[in-house]
């Protein structure tokens, strides 16, 4: 009896100790986790990214949302919803050949996989590079691709890979590819890719170098995997700064150069076609006057010309006093004079910049 009684006391004591230990370790575990969360500056960012990713996945009807890791969710917050993009192929002038080739060699093999499945030669490339001087439509083409390709499109902001704590960046680099494979067909777009993958410099931080190596090795995984449809699409103004190893991974290259006379004519017609323009505007003449202008220069000069009429309107309005007419009625259309004045002003500033007058 005595022995039995002793035993039961021992048992309750042991259970008590075990319970207390369990509670203690649970408390320590959660406090440690809390402290670690407090000192991790990225925790809020991560939370926001995950919330955003959840919303996007829902909107896109992606069912994999719940099976993604936290890292994949951070990358998923960069998924593009095509309905948010206003640019389509019709908003790009003079690059019909490039667009056609892009559609035939990259987009169609993704959309109609079954048509191309009998040949290894017609598989979509795993890397596509858009290169050429600034302001000629590279980002524009990427946006239109996101809108029109009918694939998932990740607009990868590489700063999220490089800003993180040591170790995180490698996991995020890996997550780019694991996510893309889960939601394929998928295009991963990296704008200004030279800034991210330029010749790996000797002064690269060790963590950055490892992240880049990780990125490349996952990319190679894609290249060797014939069934998966994930494409890395990059754009750069400085193709010569790219590592040779990167160029090798992007066999499909599109040169988006400065527009020639015929292309400038198309860009001018596209931009001014949506504006109130006077009958005296001579598009051929404008195209001849804008040799060396990029698409973005042309847009800027048109915007500037359009401002001249607003400026004139304001001047006459302030002379006449308050105007009761409708604003639209009172504003005159853009004239040839506005456009030539704007071109001359633009050439002047271009000359100054090119000559490096301001360093
Ligand atoms: N071919 C083009 N057709 C119509 N607009 C153009 C064209 N090229 C450039 N633009 C205008 O210039 C802007 C900048 O072009 P963008 O694609 O950002 O150039 P980049 O080649 O530097 O990425 C565009 O938003 C667009 O307004
Ligand atoms: Mg760009």
What does the model show?
The protein is α/β, with parallel strands linked by helices and 359 residues long. The protein has 3 domains: 29 residues; 206 residues, Rossmann fold (3-Layer(aba) Sandwich); 93 residues, Helicase, Ruva Protein, domain 3. The protein is 59% helix and 7% strand. The protein is built from 16 helices and 5 strands. Strands 2-3-4-1-5 form a 5-stranded parallel beta sheet. The longest helix is centred in the first third of the chain and has 38 residues. It is elongated and about 105 Å long. It starts with a helix and ends with a helix. The mean pLDDT is 85. Bound molecules: adenosine-5'-diphosphate and magnesium ion.
| Helical run tally | 16
- Based on CA inertia axes, which overall geometry fits? elongated
Strand fraction equals 5-15%
The value of Rg in angstroms is 29 Å
Contiguous low-pLDDT stretches (5 residues minimum) are: none
How many beta strands in the DSSP annotation?
Answer: 5
Residue-averaged pLDDT, rounded?
85
How does the SSE layout of this entry go?
Elements: H1 2-39, H2 43-60, H3 70-76, H4 96-111, H5 113-116, E1 127-131, H6 138-148, E2 152-155, H7 159-162, H8 168-182, E3 186-190, H9 193-197, H10 206-224, E4 230-236, H11 244-249, E5 252-255, H12 261-272, H13 283-289, H14 295-320, H15 327-330, H16 336-355
Parallel strand pairs: 1-4, 1-5, 2-3, 3-4
Helix pairs in contact: 2-3, 3-8, 8-10, 12-13, 12-14, 14-16
Task: Provide keyphrases for this structure.
Helicase, Ruva Protein, domain 3; binds magnesium ion; 3 domains; alpha/beta; binds adenosine-5'-diphosphate
């Amino acid at each position: 009896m005595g022995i039995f009684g002793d035993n039961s006391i021992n048992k309750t004591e042991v259970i008590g100790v075990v319970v207390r230990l369990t509670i203690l370790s649970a408390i320590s575990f959660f406090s440690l986790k809390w402290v670690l969360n407090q000192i991790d500056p990225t925790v809020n960012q991560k939370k926001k990214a995950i919330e955003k990713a959840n919303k996007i996945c829902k909107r896109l009807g992606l069912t994999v949302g719940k099976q993604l890791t936290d890292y994949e969710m951070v990358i998923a917050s960069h998924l593009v919803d095509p309905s948010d993009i206003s640019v389509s192929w019709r908003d790009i002038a003079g690059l019909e050949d490039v667009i056609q080739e892009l559609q035939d060699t990259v987009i169609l093999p993704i959309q109609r996989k079954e048509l191309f499945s009998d040949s290894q030669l017609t598989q979509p490339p795993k890397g596509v590079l858009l290169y050429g001087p600034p302001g000629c439509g590279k980002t524009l083409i990427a946006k239109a691709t996101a809108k029109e390709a009918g694939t998932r499109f990740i607009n990868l902001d590489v700063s999220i890979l490089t800003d993180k704590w040591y170790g995180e960046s490698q996991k995020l680099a890996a997550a780019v590819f694991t996510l893309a494979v889960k939601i394929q067909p998928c295009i991963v777009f990296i704008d200004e890719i030279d800034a991210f993958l330029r010749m790996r410099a000797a002064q690269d931080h060790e963590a950055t170098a490892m992240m880049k190596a990780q990125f490349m090795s996952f990319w190679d995984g894609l290249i060797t995997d014939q069934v998966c449809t994930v494409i890395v699409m990059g754009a750069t103004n400085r193709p010569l700064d790219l590592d040779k190893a990167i160029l090798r991974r992007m066999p499909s290259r599109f040169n988006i150069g400065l527009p020639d006379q015929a292309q400038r004519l198309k860009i001018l017609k596209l931009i001014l076609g949506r504006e109130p323009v006077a009958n005296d505007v001579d598009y051929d003449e404008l195209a001849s006057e804008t040799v060396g202008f990029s698409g973005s220069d042309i847009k800027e000069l048109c915007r500037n010309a359009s401002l001249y009429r607003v400026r004139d309107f304001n001047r006459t309005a302030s002379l006449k006093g308050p105007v009761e007419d409708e604003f639209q009625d009172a504003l005159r259309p853009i004239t040839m004079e506005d456009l030539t004045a704007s071109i001359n002003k633009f050439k002047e500033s271009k000359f100054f910049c090119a000559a490096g007058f301001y360093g």
